[in-house]
Each structure stands twice: as structure tokens, then as C-alpha cells.
Amino acid sequence: xxxxxxxxxxxxRYHTATLPARPAPAAAAAARPATVDxxxxxxxxxxxxAAAIVRVVLFHMFPxxxxxxxxxxxxxxxxxxxxxxxxxxxxxxxxxxRGRFRRLLPALWLLAxxxxxxxxxxxxxxxxxxxxxxxxxxPVAEPPATAWAEPVSEVLWYLVTYLWLVLLSPLLLxxxxxxxxxxxxxxxxxxxxxxxxxxxxGDRAAxxxxxxxxFAACWVLGFAHRDGDLRRxxxxxxxxxxxxxxxxxxxxxxxxxxxxxxxxxxxxxxYAIYSIGFVLVLLRLAPxxxxxxxxxxxxxxxxxxxxxxxxxYLWHNAAIAAAFPLGDLLHVWVFGxxxxxxxxxxxxxxxxxxxxIHVGWVEDLAAKRRPRLLPV
Length: 376
Known about the structure:
By secondary structure, the chain is mainly α. The chain has helices at 26-31, 43-61, 65-70, 73-91, 93-122, 150-153, 157-176, 180-195, 203-226, 235-255, 268-284, 290-293, 296-307, 309-329, 337-359, 361-366.
């Protein structure tokens, strides 16, 4: 069984608009708690998603522990996805699941159309059986890849986990509304039990289950946000729980370092608890975002990052990997270590920008929007 570092972003739920939900029937409305709804896009969510995308790209460029611990982007993204999924499930569970798959899979198919033929043409003598390649079409587990393509395939765990949580959302939401605390805590109890038990399943399936259990609590906390349950808890209580959760997770990682030293992403249970500590506070906050609209460049950047989140996530690691041989061809290394680092980073960001411009429009088609080169 494999553990996962913090690979993002993200994409998460890329909702085009957070529109007011249709009134539920009287009986359903009486049985369900009031929801927290705001007309138009939730720019606080957009800002968090944009920050998560930037943090993931930075972490893969500069894999230092403080970046991973300073802002657990993956947990935040799953929490945002859970909140938006709860609203969609209330409208129609079938349409909600179908809509998420429709938005996410076309960008993956484009990636597969480039890399699967490339892997076969370069040479892949020990490639798996052909049915396994269907995972590039519907990723219920991490798709297969050659060693040189691992920077591309290794980030797909997020997409796999996200799609499984989408599929489970109708059931999870129904269970949550009957047993709220139990539904949040159950994954945290099951995760260490799963990690320390011998299961007669392959590594690929075990990895999927581990990732789902790691981030299911954050996803369910998104339900709590959407149903207004977090708003009913006083902020000092939320803050106290957050401090205990994050401090406890850090304490465990420091006293139980892994093979790579102190890296919280290598320990799923502490990472799940650490993510919860951040998610509780960020979802409980509801800051006014008028200041963002008054800063046109910042507002445009947040919009762009949200509109191209799937593309950036799927391709950024490939761009980072390609930046080093390209930088070597350009003799970036002659400027010394410090300036060379800046040069490689600039090349990686330039490649990401080119990819966004050339293939990002697929996200517009998937969302049934008019294709645009730069949606700002």
C-alpha cells in the first residue's frame, strides 16, 4: 500500500456558479437543516481554491515541508468540493454525479490522448494488460504509466479520490444528516485500522481506499458547511478544536518521523487530522470579499485559476519535469545555483502558461461554456 504526498489541486469542484437552490418540498425542508446560500459565486471559495492551486504548484517545484504544512491544499480542496456537492445533490443526485464527471473527464482524456500513445511509441515492454488502460478513460484507480511519465500519473490520485467521493456523496450526505458527528469521525477511525490490517487486495485498490478515507472527513465537513452546521458552533470552539487537531498531528509527525524525515503527507492519519484543523476554520469564516472586486488584477487572477484549475493540476507536474532538460539545453546552469533555480522555475511557469492557453479551453467545453483562451 502506498502513501501519498500532497499532490493536488485540485482540481476540486469547479462550479460555474453558486445559484440559489430551488425550494425543496415542505416535508423535505422541514426534515433538513437550513442551508447557507449566497447568490452568485462564492468568492471566498474561489480565493481558497486559487490559493490551493498555487500552493500545489509551488510545493512540486520546491518540495519543502513547511509549504505542505503551512497550507494543506488537498484537504481544503476536498472540503470545498464536499460543500458544493451537497448543494448539487439536494437538487438532483443523478445530475450532480453526472455533471462532475462531465466537467473533469474531458481534460483527463486530452492528457491521455497525448501521453498514452507517447508511452507506447517510446517503448513499454512490460505494459499492463490492455483493459487496465481503460483507467485513463474512467479513473476508478490510478492509471498505468511508464517510469518517465510518472510525473503525470502520480498526480492523478487526486482525480481518482475526488470521483469516488462524488459517487459516494448521495449516500454520505444521507448518512451525515442522520448521524453528523459519527459520519465525520468514522473515516478517522477506519483509516488507521485499514493501514494496519492485511487486506487481500492489490496495491492499486488499497491506495484508493486509503486516499478516500484520508480525505472523506474533509469532504463531509463540506456538507456541514453547506447545511449551516458549522455556523451554529461558536468560532472560539472551532478555533480550539483546530488548534488541538493541528498541534496533535504535528506532535505525532515530529515524534514519529518517516523514511523521508518529518513529512506529514507520508502519514495519512495525522495528515487527515491536520487538514481537518485548517478546514474547520476556513469553512467557518465568511469574510466579505468586496476588496477582491476592487483589485482588478487579483480578481482576474483568481478567476483564471478557478476556470483552469483542472488543466493546471493535470499538466503542472509534467511542465515542471520538462523544465529541467529544457533549462539544461538553454544552459541555465551557467548562472549559478541560485539564478539557475529561478530560471528553471520561470521555464516551468512559462510551460504551464502555454498549456493553459492551448488546451485550457477543454474545460470551457466540459462546463458548456463558450471556449476562451484566457477566461478573465
